Amino acid sequence: MARRVLLIEDEPNIIEAVSFILSRDGWTVHTHSDGASAAERVRAHPPDLVILDAMLPGRSGYDILQELRDAEETRGIPVMMLTARGQARDRELALSLGATHFMTKPFSNAEVLDRVRALAGG
Amino acid sequence: MAEPSSRRMLAGGRIRARRLDAGMAQAELARQVGISPSYLNLIEHDRRRIGGRLLNALARALDLEPAQIAEGAGGARVERLSAAALARGRPTSDAEAFASRFPDWAALVETQAEMIETLKAQVAGLSDRLAHDPELSASLHQVITAATAIRSTASILAGNEALDRDWQARFHRNIHAESLRLAESSRRLAGYLEAPGEGDGAGVAALSPLDQVEAALDRLGHHVPALEGPNPAMSPEEVAKGVAGLDEAAQDILTVWLRTYRADAAALPVETVARGWRETPEPLALASRLGCALPRLLRRLATLPPGAGPARAGLVTSDAGGALGPRRALDGLTLQRGAVACPLWPIYEALSQPGRPLRALAMMPGETASAALCYAVSTIEAGPEWISPPRMVAVMLMLPSDTAPAETTRRAVGPGCSLCPRDNCPARREPSLLPTPSRML
């Protein structure tokens, strides 16, 4: 059965590109664009990996990450954070909140693919 | 015996050092100034004092000013060179010798040290701006997001020979759209960073979107007749599109502002508020009399046509993060945006006490400085869904200080810690760049 990735990102063209490369690699990709309801989406349909953008409408990715880590049913899901802010303090914040990996934009498709495979055991 | 940390060179030593640097033999220098080599030797070892004609002659022969021999390098220059050396972990003991022997090089080092400190301060200021300027941060985010989409999409096109035509067309369209966004956001960012006076002729490129909106609202007098009445002539979107000199982001911001304006105007018609204000010129009492929410009335009082409400009014809104919306200044007085504002303004106190109305006479520092009668309140708005986080907004109306009731609490406020000269402020977070009274003593 194909491994499932939930991409929580609000930029349509980034969604399309990342979904394309992951789908071609055999992943089932679901997407979610609204920060306010993202955590609920993860709880309702737990994926094998979450790719989470830091800046989302309705709620920040860091808040969502914290909620996922606070809940027992979502604590163990690997989360890769994507952010346009690549300073050390942003990385430290993401990792301190429980991000499994932190990647800055712009990223390379190959790097995303490698990391998804490593985190979700693909 | 160890040398003292700051050995002071005497006149003889300076003469000798300069002579050696010039590659001049002792005999030659002695001949030029008309003394014997042995006498010069005594002078160079500070066993004979010199002055007057001989000092001048030696100075001429060594291409120095007499004072440079007699006193050495100026104390101030030596101090600056020592500070520059210390800043880089270098020993300072030879600062005077260096300044005396190589005055031109010492001047160059001094100038470059000053330039380094200036640049460091500018970089620190820019870094701080990135951290604290939400508009700059948002513009950069747009640029990076567009670049990310282009990179990712282009990589797919470049690496995928088996890509079918539909996907190719789709990705080409995406790249095109993102390249347009990148171009626009880059242009806007460059314009925002440009100095005032540069940019296009309308000055749009030099103003941030919020600045553009504020300028537009100032031109309109913060009153929009087209949105008044039970059947307004235009929609907020149409009004925003018709305002000249706004880029797309500014139009978006103005549209949101105008939607709120329209809702306020529908709930509180001009005639109702004007009549109420004439009879009850106090916001809290008037809100109770009109049966309306205080935040709505405060906004409305700042957007009435001339003669319909307070003679002059200012308005500031803030979200929970301290980000200010479009401002209306009261006689030039308003809160700073982008920089770290003074937390003592009532609007920030209101954020910590939702629903509680606050009134204070806010007084800026200085004997002739401005003051404003402030009414502030914050509200919590529910999100669109059950799990949505609430949104807090604070509103502060500013009226002329001479309208303040006698019993109004006075509150000392400022322009932000870095520019505030107040001494002993309990809310001070960082030293002021301006001299405070205690520093001037």
From TrEMBL, chain A:
Domain named Response regulatory is located at: 4-120
The UniProt GO MF terms for this protein read: DNA binding
- Lineage, top-rank taxon, reads Bacteria
Q: Which SUPFAM superfamilies match?
A: CheY-like
As recorded in UniProt, coiled-coil segments are none
Alphabetized InterPro entries for the sequence? Bact_response_regulator (IPR050595), CheY-like_superfamily (IPR011006), Sig_transdc_resp-reg_receiver (IPR001789)
In its keyword annotation, does this UniProt entry include DNA-binding?
yes
Output one GO BP term: phosphorelay signal transduction system
**Which PROSITE patterns does UniProt cross-reference here?**
RESPONSE_REGULATORY
Q: What is the protein's name according to its record?
A: Phosphate regulon transcriptional regulatory protein PhoB
Organism, as annotated: Limimaricola soesokkakensis
